[in-house]
Amino acid sequence: MSFREFGLRAELLRAVDTQGYTDPTPVQSEAIPAILDERDVLAGAQTGTGKTAAFALPILQLLSDGHSRRTPRVLVLAPTRELAAQVGDSFQIYGRNLSLRTTIVFGGVGIQPQIDKLRRGIDVLVATPGRLLDLAGRKVADLSQVEILVLDEADRMLDMGFIHDIKRIMRLLPRERQNLLFSATYPDSVQDLANSLLHNPVQIQIARRNTAAESVTQIVHHVARDQKRALLSHLIQTEDWSQVLVFTRTKHGANRLAKQLVSDGIEAEAIHGNKSQSARTRALTGFKAGRVRALIATDIASRGIDIDQLPHVVNFDLPNIPEDYVHRIGRTGRAGSEGTARSLVSTEEGQFLRDIERLLRKDIPVQDVDFPRRSSPADRPQSANQRHSRQPQGNRSGGGRSGGGSRSGGGGRSGGSTGSRTSGAASQAGRPQRRRPQPQR
Ligand code: AMP
After folding, report:
1. For ligand 1, atom 6, which residue shows the shortest CA distance?
2. 146 vs 75: CA distance, rounded Å
3. Of 129, 167, 273, 372, which alpha carbon lies 20 to 30 A from 344's?
4. For residue 279, what pLDDT is reported?
5. Structural domain harbouring 197
6. CATH code, domain carrying 148
């Protein structure tokens, strides 16, 4: 199937062509016709599958067929500033040949420029829930004419406690509207939201439920907690990684690790919710430009970070919510490229690992790495780090392998399609292929 077959207008096809997209991705093949048919859509698609264009392109087409008003006709809700900014950018990129106006609003930055833009009149509003309610409370965001509502990364919005904000926003929207809900995972809370929001939706399931992207090679390194930094520095330096996104569980941990890596001679920056928007943007820009080699992020700050062909993700700490693991490693192996996700697992994190493996329905291969241990005051007698660096938790597939981290077999998963319009091929092929690399930012 080609983009032409959707009946998209020439202006949109030109924009798609400029992006270097030759074929629609599976989520695009399914969602674009359904959205053009003005159906509600429930789509299970991870970031990295091309889901943004899957809703932005048909929405732009529907908008360009109608009449511009001063108030927004489309509302996209996103959990974080980063994702809102990226979705807004996508609308601008795909809509570059049309005269439609997109505005992005999120918290943490001055509100006045956003008020000014809203007053000038817009077609598409991309927003995080809190700032949108603020603007609505000041009577500058009028949502009474919204024709299409998109909830992007709905699972994350619920994880972040936005359910009440979402319900308040729903009350500001007209009852008659088209609803599109995108979510990487389907906990019951998302299902409940979908039931209350969507009318007879077309259901699309791209990445199988709660499974990780197939183009990501996953590796576990068992290592004592106080040796994680030494192992990470060793991996970055000996394997000559030019770009790695590292996850920590806490903001404090992110700051500390960034400082430690810098003292090891690795350019590193932390990005998390306590940092100002300008510091986050600066860190992200430096990372994308290659000035920052290691970006250390907490889960929330990392949402929606869209970096083409990010080669390495490291879980410095394992997340205690298994679905976060899937989100984290979805930052690599994107846009058809291969990526590696390594998890540094201390004995204390054994249960987290087991929970993640239960969710993935497979064991993650273990790899031992010989690296220079650092003595630290926290070292216990019996060199706990040595003991723990080797499979402390029973059988693990691939244990003791020393190669470059071979792909896990991971067969036998039963998936969990949520709907009738399930894309079979998409389970491994859900990722976009580019004609040529075209980083967008
Ligand atoms: P998303 O899942 O929306 O975050 O998109 C992931 C990446 O895929 C983005 O960098 C897009 O620019 C890219 N992309 C989207 N659609 C296509 C396509 N049909 N072909 C190639 N790349 C695409």
Report:
1. 48
2. 7
3. 273
4. 81
5. 3-205
6. 3.40.50.300
Could you report the average pLDDT of every consecutive run of 10 residues in the chain (441 residues)? 93 94 91 97 86 97 86 95 92 95 94 96 96 96 97 91 95 97 88 94 73 74 96 95 92 94 95 77 84 88 63 92 82 66 96 91 91 66 39 36 34 31 35 42 30
Q: What residues are in contact with ligand 1 under a 6 Å CB criterion? A: 21, 24-25, 28, 47-53, 306, 308, 334-335, 432-434, 440
Do residue 263 and residue 347 come from a single domain?
yes
Q: Write out the two tokens for 274.
A: 């306590």
Instruction: Give CA–CA dist 153/119, Å, rounded.
Output: 28
The residue to mutate among 434, 435, 436, 438, having the most atoms of ligand 1 within 8 angstroms of its beta carbon, is 434
What's residue 326's pLDDT?
Answer: 83
416 by Cβ neighbours in 10 Å (0-12 / 13-18 / 19+) ranks as middle
By residue count, the chain amounts to 441
Contact 60, 12 (CB under 8 A): yes
pTM of the full predicted structure?
0.60
pLDDT in tens, 206-254: 754 444 556 688 999 999 999 999 999 999 999 999 899 999 998 899 9
Residues 186 and 101 placed together within one structural domain of the fold: yes
349, 323: one domain: yes
Residue at which a domain ends, from 161, 181, 205: 205
CA distance 191 to 204: 14
Task: Please identify, by atom number, the ligand 1 atom nearest to the C-alpha of residue 431.
Answer: 8
Q: What pairs with residue 202 in β-bridges?
A: 41
Boundary residue ending a domain (142, 173, 205): 205
Question: What's the structural domain count of the chain?
Answer: 2
Residues 277 and 190 both lie in one domain: no
Is 440 part of a structural domain of the chain?
Answer: no
| Residue 51 shares a structural domain with residue 138 | yes
Residues 184 and 91 in one domain: yes
Going from the Cα of 92 to the center of ligand 1, the distance in angstroms, rounded, reads 15
Please tell me whether residues 148 and 78 are part of one structural domain. Answer: yes
The residue whose CA has the least distance to atom 20 of ligand 1 is: 21
Instruction: Please report whether residue 438 resides in a domain.
Output: no
Output the residue whose Cα is nearest ligand 1's atom 22: 432
Whole-number Å distance between alpha carbons of 341 and 286: 21
246-256 CB burial, b ≥16 within 10 A, e <16: bbbbebebbbe
